Amino acid sequence: MKLDSSVSAVVTGGASGLGAATARALAAQGVRVAIFDFNEEKGAQLARETGGVFCKVDVTSEDMVDAGFARARAAHGQERILVNCAGTGLAVKTASRDRKTGEATHFPLDAFDRIIQINLVGTFRCIAKSAQGMLSLDPLEHRERGAIVNTASAAAEDGQMGQAAYSASKAGVIGMTLPIARDLMSEGIRCNTILPGIFNTPLMQAAPDNVKAALAASVPFPKRFGAPEEFAQLALTMITNGYFNGEDVRLDGALRMAPR
């Protein structure tokens, strides 16, 4: 797919981190970008910077997702590109003991469900609604109508202690990538997923310096955090390379996460 001003895109979780880098990279190619995010201040600022449109969206809300797509399409027309970066995490052991009292507790199931709803169900909700809209588009060269890129995590394959909910949600994103690509193959819509390792996002920047140094040293090569722009570069490759379909690709400097 050729990227220019005739193409529009939606980036979920687009106000910061990996999503913001992807929104900027798409806008730099002339693409008209709509940013879905819950952070109104950062989202609106990035929309002004990129000449795009901000849509306040919680991906767990059917109504907000519908309203976001309606606003984006009113501003830019039907999107040909969807990049899903909205997500969250929580580190709690499946079952554990209180260090002081010895009391046994388990992972709160409402918190487990929340992670699944945001990372997995929210991703699929946006895919289904975007793909439905893409069916209305005229095909481009090679019968292509659109491209979808999702964000999973290296933790989907080697999750650490406390990551059962997060790993399950991201493994679900990987698991649905190929079936979605097959569902949409006759309509010329491709679907791929990126599995980032340790990236220099706002969440990571808030960690203590000693923690960041240890994490960076754990990456085989290069021994540093991934840059959001490197994630965006791979996302654009998945979008522009018409033979890239049904794949999940690790982007992690050969990192394989230790148990803790």
Automatic annotation (TrEMBL):
<dbReference type="InterPro" id="IPR020904">
    <property type="entry name" value="Sc_DH/Rdtase_CS"/>
</dbReference>
<comment type="similarity">
    <text>Belongs to the short-chain dehydrogenases/reductases (SDR) family.</text>
</comment>
<dbReference type="InterPro" id="IPR002347">
    <property type="entry name" value="SDR_fam"/>
</dbReference>
<dbReference type="InterPro" id="IPR036291">
    <property type="entry name" value="NAD(P)-bd_dom_sf"/>
</dbReference>
<keyword id="KW-0560">Oxidoreductase</keyword>
<protein>
    <submittedName>
        <fullName>SDR family NAD(P)-dependent oxidoreductase</fullName>
    </submittedName>
</protein>
<dbReference type="Pfam" id="PF00106">
    <property type="entry name" value="adh_short"/>
</dbReference>
